[in-house]
Design brief:
With 318 residues, this protein is of the alpha+beta class. It has 13 helices and 6 strands. It folds into 2 domains: 155 residues, Nuclear Transport Factor 2, Chain: A; 139 residues, Orange carotenoid-binding protein, N-terminal domain (orange carotenoid protein, domain 2, Orthogonal Bundle), CATH 1.10.2090.10. The protein binds beta,beta-carotene-4,4'-dione. The site of beta,beta-carotene-4,4'-dione (45D) has 29 residues, from helix 3, helix 8, helix 10 and strand 5.
Length: 318
C-alpha cells in the first residue's frame, strides 16, 4: 500500500496530547482589538523581566524599515489605528506590506515597535484605555505556559496579523541569515534511535545545511510544522526551511522506532529546540514523528510542540 500523508499524520496519534497553545490563542481571538494589543504589550513586557529576544540585525530590518519610518511620523492616534488594522487583517497598504513579510521580518517589525514603545515614541495603548476583564483571563492563561509555549503564542499572534496576500511571496533566497552565537551540537546521539536518515536530518539542520536535509526526503515527502498543514515536496520544504528553520539548536534526546509490515518505519523522538530569537535562554519541548519509506527516505515528519515537559518521557508505541 502506498504511503499517504493522511495516514502519516496519524502515526503515534495515541501520544498526541492537546496543546494549551491553541486554547490560549482561541481566548486571545475573542478579545476586542484594543484588548488584544494591550494584552500583547503586557505579556511581552512581563515576559521581558526574565527573557528578551535578541536584538534584530540591520539586514533583517531592511524590509521593515520603510513601514517603521512611516509609522514613526504619524500622530499617536494614527499609529494606534495602524496597529489595529494589522491586528484585524484590514486591507490597507501597510497591512498588505506586512502580509508579504516573512515570519522573521514580522517578528523584527514588532520587536522594533516594542523598542519604540519603551522609548515613548509610539504609544502602547490608546489614551484612556480601560482593560476589560477578559484581558486578565488571557494573561493568566499565558502565565501558566512554559517559556517555550509563551514565545510560541506571541509568534503565532504576530504571524496572523496583516492582510494575507493572495499569492505569498515565495522568494526566500534574500532572507538574511541568523548569526549563530555558538555552534549547535553536531554530534547527535538519540537514545533508542539509529536510523541514518533521522540522525543525518538533525545534523544537517544544526548546521543550516538545508540541501542535505532535503535530500533525505522522498520527492513527494512532507514536513508538518507545529499547528500547520503539511508542506509537500522537496522544493516547498527547502523554501520553508530557508525562511524559518535557520539558526535552530536542535537537541533530540530519546526516541522509539517501529518497523511496519511493509518495511516502512515510524520513529518518534522528543527533545529540546532553541530559536535564534532567544538563544539558550528558552528551550522548547518538541517531538518529531517521522515516517520513513522502506528505502529509509523521509516520507513525512511532523514537528509538534509538547503539551508539557512530562511528554518528553512519554514515548508509547503506535
Ligand atoms: O501587537 O525540525 C508589542 C521547524 C505590543 C523546521 C507586540 C522546526 C503590540 C523543522 C509588544 C509591541 C522550523 C518546523 C505586539 C524544527 C503588539 C524542524 C510585539 C521547529 C505584537 C525543529 C511582540 C522550530 C513581539 C520551532 C516583539 C519550533 C514578539 C521554532 C516577539 C520556534 C516574539 C520558534 C518572538 C519560535 C517570538 C520563536 C521574537 C516560537 C519568537 C518565537
Amino acid at each position: 500500500m502506498p504511503l499517504t500523508i493522511e495516514s502519516a499524520q496519524n502515526i503515534f496519534s495515541n501520544t498526541q496530547v492537546p496543546s494549551p497553545i491553541p486554547a490560549t490563542i482561541a481566548l486571545f481571538d475573542q478579545l476586542s482589538v484594543d484588548d488584544q494589543l494591550a494584552l500583547l504589550w503586557y505579556a511581552y513586557t512581563e515576559m521581558g523581566r526574565s527573557i528578551t529576544p535578541a536584538a534584530v540585525g540591520a539586514a533583517r530590518l531592511q524590509f521593515a524599515e520603510g513601514l517603521l519610518k512611516e509609522i514613526q511620523q504619524m500622530s499617536t492616534e494614527d499609529q494606534m489605528q495602524v496597529m489595529r488594522e494589522l491586528a484585524q487583517n484590514a486591507d490597507t497598504h501597510i497591512s498588505r506590506s506586512y502580509g508579504f513579510f516573512s515570519v522573521n521580518t514580522k517578528l523584527a517589525f514588532w520587536y522594533e515597535l516594542a523598542e519604540l514603545m519603551k522609548q515613548g515614541v509610539v504609544a502602547p495603548v490608546p489614551t484612556g484605555y480601560q482593560m476589560s476583564p477578559g484581558v486578565q483571563v488571557v494573561l493568566d492563561s499565558i502565565k501558566k505556559l512554559d517559556p517555550g509555549q509563551q514565545i510560541t503564542v506571541l509568534r503565532n499572534t504576530v504571524v496572523d496579523m496583516g492582510f494575507e496576500p493572495v499569492a505569498p511571496s515565495s522568494d526566500t533566497t534574500a532572507e538574511p541569515l541568523f548569526e549563530r552565537s555558538e555552534p549547535a551540537p553536531t554530534k547527535i546521539n538519540v537514545e533508542g534511535i539509529t536510523e541514518p536518515a533521522v540522525i543525518s536530518y538533525f545534523t544537517a539542520m544544526n548546521s543550516d545545511n538545508f540541501e542535505t536535509a532535503i535530500a533525505l526526503f522522498t520527492f513527494d515527502g512532507a514536513l508538518q510544522p507545529p499547528f500547520q498543514k503539511p508542506i509537500v515536496g522537496r522544493e516547498a520544504i527547502a523554501q520553508y526551511m530557508r525562511a524559518e528553520a535557520q539558526g535552530l539548536n536542535i537537541m533530540p534526546k530519546q526516541g522509539i522506532s517501529q518497523t511496519l509490515p511493509d518495511g516502512s518505519k515510524q520513529v518518534k523522538i522528543t527533545g529540546v529546540v532553541q530559536t535564534p530569537w532567544f538563544g539558550v535562554n528558552v528551550g522548547m519541548n518538541i517531538s518529531w514523528r517521522f515516517l520513513l519509506n522502506p528505502e529509509g527516505k523521509i516520507f513525512f515528519v511532523a514537528i509538534d510542540m509538547l503539551a508539557s515537559p512530562e511528554e518528553l518521557l512519554s514515548l508509547r508505541p503506535r
